[in-house]
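Late entry, written up from scratch paper. The run itself happened at the end of the previous shift, but nothing got recorded in the book at the time, so transcribing now.
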Amino acid sequence: MTRIAIVVQRCDESVVGGSEALAWQYARLLSDRFDVEVLSSTAIDYVSWRDELPSGVRLRDGIPVRRFPTLFERGPYWYGLHQRMMLEVQPFAAPRDGAPLAWREALQDEYVRFQGPCCPGLDDWLRDHHPDYAAVLFCTYLYPTTYFGIAEVPAHKTLFVPTLHDEPTAYLPAFAQRYAAHRNRIWLTAAEQRTAARIWGYDEGDVIGMAVEHSESAMPESRARPYLLYCGRIEAGKGCDELVRAMERVADRGLTLVLTGVDNMGLPRQPWIEYLGFVDERRKFELMAGATAFVLPSQYESFSIVTLEAMAQRVPVLVNGRCDVMREHIERSGAGFHYDGLDDMVAKIGRIATLDSGERARIGAAGREYVLANYREERVRARLVEQVERVIGAAAG
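Output as recorded:
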């Protein structure tokens, strides 16, 4: 079979992350048609990028994963650069002498490199071995594995999956400049594509999305109290601090906030908070099916597979309307509500809590229909294979 590579910053069964899950799903969907190899780092922790896994090739569900050592961990130097970037680069930064401060390309490269994971061996491998692959797919714009690795592969052989959202780092000019030549792009949503046009100035490519693999209806978890559910990394950057503040204001309504995933924020001890840690897939879907609503408070999303999984379980969803992608999911599907700010979040929680059974059933059915119509595995696989074959054919010609 024709050999292709997929590059992603982390790849391991223990890793929880949207772009990592996307890259692995694409590897599996393509493995029936192509000889797929995943190229990644030895890191598991996305904060430190410690060198934890063995380097070299290991099989994961029959697919070879080639891991390269991380050169260093993220440290104070990068955090200092990040603080400067937040003050000096993003479009809302205060101007200096009447104009925003511009970073030179070398400093932008430094920022990306020390953000991690820095894997010079991966870059060397791509430079020396890209002729061995008919195409190389790079997943997510943000990390050195893509930013430096993609420069080692001829642009006509690359497929670029940005997983872009409107965040301060995306405004570093180096990202737009680096990826401009790599026009074979896969967008997860039309909203992400519009975000690229606004921030980077180009939007060529096709919207393919990600498959919702587990759309079978689960048995709802039965609980004495109604509950809102959040699944994912629990941290302020995901809006979980705002979610907790909103729940404080509705604590007298008998609702529980149930959270699964890793707690990087330090949840307060409250009788209306229940933290379950990691749960298996079956329990996650049962929790979704039994929830009053699934809540995604993150402002920075390019797709959110977990929200679509909740929709497939016929549960109303509540999302942060400041995220164009999530607002578009709601407006296209009718599967729930979006909010703008803390007060509106509190109001929408109250609205969801008082839905009658008919309204709840109608909203839940709309969400499930949206998922099945747009994100079935066979639909995404067919479009993905077509895209890869097109790139391979053009490169061969």
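The radius of gyration is 21 Å.
(Scratch paper discarded after transcription.)
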